[in-house]
Amino acid sequence: EEGLSFVYVPDDRADLYRFPVRVSDTRVLDILLETSEPQKDYFSVDRLYVYDGDVLIQTIETSELTPSEEYLWEGLFVNRGHVEGEPDVRDVTFDGAEDFGLLCAASYSKNLPFCWFYWNEDEGRFVQGFTIFGGVTLEVDYEQKCLIEHRYEVDGERTVRYA
After folding, report:
1. What span, in angstroms and rounded, lies between the C-alpha atoms of 143 and 94?
2. Most buried of 6, 49, 91, 104 (most Cβ within 10 A)?
3. Per residue in 4-33, is it b (16+ CB within 10 Å) or e — as a string?
4. Rounded to two decimals, what is the model's pTM?
5. Measured in Å, how far apart are the chain's first and last C-alpha atoms?
6. Where do the DSSP E strands lie in 11-155?
């Protein structure tokens, strides 16, 4: 297993943050995140570019995304070098293709909402999916094909299963 390699890539237009997402056994796409705050370790994402090799196949404007009504939504963010702030890349739709989630709240608490994007093979692009508390608090049960969200509330932890 290759593992994730998060690479900060400077570019002429802006500074980009890059990570790979495997959408099939033979195809790995690069996701590049553009920010207007290139010098910060914690930054907001202005747009996402999806590359297949050197070919740009998709651009996602964060201003055109649909905010979650159930979870805190302040945009998309990355906190470089922090276990809870890096993009979360794994198969959460149980279709064999990796999906990715990005923080969608600038403020930190135990409940960190992530906006997930999943690969739609028929359309050949990533689609905004759901928002759920993510990072290390999100469990993916591949055997039962369900997501297990841990919510920290005033009266203790609550576990929610999504099948």
Report:
1. 10
2. 104
3. eeeeeeeeeeebbbbbbbbbeeeeebbbbb
4. 0.87
5. 27
6. 15-24, 27-35, 42-44, 47-52, 55-61, 77-79, 88-90, 99-103, 113-120, 125-133, 138-141, 146-153
